[in-house]
Amino acid sequence: MEKKFDPTDYKMKSGLEVHHQILTERKLFCRCPAGLYSTEHDTEILRHMRPTLSELGEYDGTALMEFKTKKEVIYLLNRESICTYEMDDTPPFPINQEAVDIAIEIALMLNCKIVGEVHIARKQYLDGSIPAGFQRTTIIGVDGWVPYKDRKIKVIQLALEEDACREVSDVGHTITFRTDRLSMPLIEVVTAPDMKTPDEVADVGRIIGDVLRVTGKVRRGIGSVRQDVNVSIEGGERVEIKGVPRIPDFPPLVLNEAYRQHKLLNIRDFLTECVADKDDFKAEIFDLSDIQGRIRHRLIKKAVERRGAALKGVALRQVKGLLAMETQPELTFAHELSERVRVIACLDQLPNLLHTEDVSVTGLEPEDLDLINKAMNLADEDTGVLTWGSAEDAQTAAQEIIIRVQEAFDGIPNETRQARKDGLTDFERILPGPDRMYPDTDSPPTALDSERIARIQKGLQPKPWDIEKEYLSKGIPRHQSKRLALHPRRTYFDRIINEYDIKPKFAAWVLIDLCKHLKRQGVLLEELNDDHWNKFAELVADKRIFREGIATLITYMADHPEEDPDDFLAAHHITPLDEASLETAVLKIAGEHKGIKLQDEQNWHEVLMGFVMKEIKGCARGELIWETVQRQPR
Amino acid sequence: MEKEGLKGYRGAAKEKLISLKARVWGDVVVDTSRGEFRGIILPRSETADDQHIVLKLHNGYNIGLHIETVNKIEELGYRKAHYKIPEKSFPIDPDKPKVTLFGTGGTIASRLDYRTGAVIPAFSPGELYGAVPELVDVCNLNTIKLYGEFSENIGREHWIGVAKAIAEAIEDGADGIVVGHGTDTMHHTAAALTFMVQDSPVPIIIVGSQRSSDRPSSDAALNLINACRAAGYGEIAEVLVCMFGPTSDQYDLLHRGTRVRKMHSSYRSTFRTIGERPMAMVSTSEYVPLRDDYRRRRKDNLKVKLTPVFDDRVSIVYYYPNMKPDIIDSLVDNGYKGIVIAGTGLGHVNRPLYPSLKRAYEAGVHIYMTVQTLWGYVQMFVYDTGRDILDLGVVPLDNMLPEVAYVKLGWALGQTHERDEVKDIMLTPIADEITAREPIDGYLVMQGGLPEVKEFFKSYKR
Ligand SMILES: [Zn+2]
Q1: Which of A41, A406, A432, B274 has its CA 20 to 30 A from that of A206?
Q2: Residue A299's domain spans which residues?
Q3: Are residues A348 and A476 in the same domain?
Q4: Chain A partners of B63 at a C-beta cutoff of 8 Å?
């Protein structure tokens, strides 16, 4: 990547779609149990997805593309986790009201306006991920916000929808899905593209995740949350990176996509220099069956000889240099072509194309180049691409290559892309148009009356950013306030600082920092229940133990959960000392160690402090002990 | 203007719209006590309440707003939608068979009004070509819209009308007939056409869809393509129902019109041949007859034997325990001429009904016995009760399905009321409505959970 590529220079905008499964007993439109995953299946069925006519009576672009791929879709069915509803052989049952309640609660947490009546919509998916070919989805709230820095990030909508299948494999013309997750309720939070840097996207992702978790009504664990990140730069197009599970992955992906768009705009400029007008661009497909037997390149040789593949050539006139232009770090425009061929023509054995601009060792050999140049009449400024597969697939591939180059004249195609492990992205599909949404005629509208919303509003958890503010005002440092706001023991914490004479700042230190430290040291804090902690709070409030002795006390309690901490204090002579007793105790210890030899006499007080703390740590405040020690002469 | 502007709205919601000077298709900002909402006002479904206004948001979703929360509506624009299916001229290929498609109302192909969800049927050849382009590779299509009725509203007059239209099309040289039909009563119509249009030289295929064509997983296109193939190329010149065979998208089955029944309220593969095997499997690449006892396509003599009559003073009485004789009495008193009983077990009803049945018989009513088990034969000699019922003049119909018996009795009574003639028509099978024997693979209803079925289920995968 160029060293100083800064997406803010290109007015990058990014938005998020957070999909989070919610915690219900049953699925959204049928009575199957939610959250019952299994890798076993009882049988399977086969379906094909067929595009439906769009509003203008034509097939929508995505739809047509998916149809081109002619996929056989296999669904693996487990009788415990799905019924005939998920198979699309039974109409929907009335929407799960438990799920609607949770969605309303989350919508309110996100400051959304709640709709008066829920209308179920069908959102078309032709990739097979839903057997019906559409997902049932509904808007619960619109136009909300979450606070970020000194501004509000707009939440466009909160939808309640059914989850899709889990993909098992996608090989050639067969895609296989497991159906257990299908139709589990999830909420979708869509933000406006209000984030301006890659890091902001991650920050906002965390804030939304926090709000959802605060409700305690979302599912946890692998697969329960999936996020789509959309990115565009000035002059670019909205591109969606699908299904990113981890928030730390956002920034590199966003940065890379902004970079890709920047590069594609460069490519657009390059193309308009080569060919003034998109309409003047010429490309031809060649059936290379006559020469395919003479090509030496091992990939083609193998495909032709062993698999009987057909070789097709695409001549891209006057655009030499295009395929070697960078699009993502270490990737060139040829990768964009290869990806289309992989997805649309189902030629998924990579590499699935070779081209005349590849001068590397894996590229075409000079003898091959001669043959190809001749067969396709390639002039100096032309580029040739070869692709192979079954005659039909190779033809689809060749056509798709031309389509992708034509799109490059316009800049950036509207796409959904999938994240790779290395932070780069691969093509997934064309971003569907608005035509894919239409009313579900199987489901009646349901009113959300004001009493219901008021009831949910009343039981609402405080919002994490409000709690954080509250803690800050109590003098708790920011990093602890943030943690506390989302802490599972937060309500217990509040009770402790209200019921006992303990400084909030001190309690926060114990709960957040000290506990973390002790946990790392292997102390089994989970042994401690509320009674233990109450006792602990009592000891602290009564000043029977001081800061310096606390770690030892908690460790003792965790190690001996059955025993009385008072015994421990007694055994270790941890009893609070008033100033006079402290003076006496220190004096005594100083006397015992008078004879000690020191390398540097200046260190006397430090050394003495060590001896003192060993014996009376926790019996008085550390500062007081230090003062007392400092008064002791050598 | 006002009517169109408030489409579907009534009562309080309508008044609200009027009072706020808002209208359907208005691109509006609605100020409510729950906040502000932007979108286009949609027509409201007539069956929905009068308390909400429907808005299409700009993200494609629809929502409702309760009128009590609405304070103000400001119209920013007006976007009325017009929906039409594009017509493309259907190419004619002299080498392909001529298929005539009759429409009765079920939508085999349709387009959706994306805003309201209303289904706009595609029906003319041009529209169908746009919706199911593969048809061009199958046949030359001629379409005639006869009715626009939901399946449940199809009855006597439609059966007669379709039968006459079919006869005419066949005489005009059609190589095959397809009838588009809603699925709920498809098997009634299939039986009616079997009786009314006999001795056809070409296939008469009835087709529909269980999942409308507005969804990607629809069975409509596949059913239609296969029906056109069965009509244009198939060898079986009979009235057949063409619907999904297995659960998966694989092939359709052709069922004889008198032995077929809708067996599931929503499955795609809902149509099953009862007590026999289906006639054939048909897919986009194959046509595989499963039996050889069928009437073959013929090129000469294009005349059919047309008997388009039906007396609808016939009822089916589905017997249940505790049935009171007044059920029978009221039918007689209301002028019914035929009663088909769907009896229990081998064909029984309780003793209290006997006097009423006797009375009905004496009043000239034709009474026939079928079984509500659907599979199996009426056998009234096994028990005394059966013999008693026979003595009352009730005629057993062997393994004729109750719905088929209903249709056939109406058709017979359309021709004669002479008791023996009616009986003769009823007991002389035309197309297997009564079969001489039940084959050993005629009753296959598997039960889940059994080890062998589990095994089958796992390996069959369809
Ligand atoms: Zn289910």
Answers
A1: A432
A2: 272-420
A3: no
A4: 115-119, 139, 142
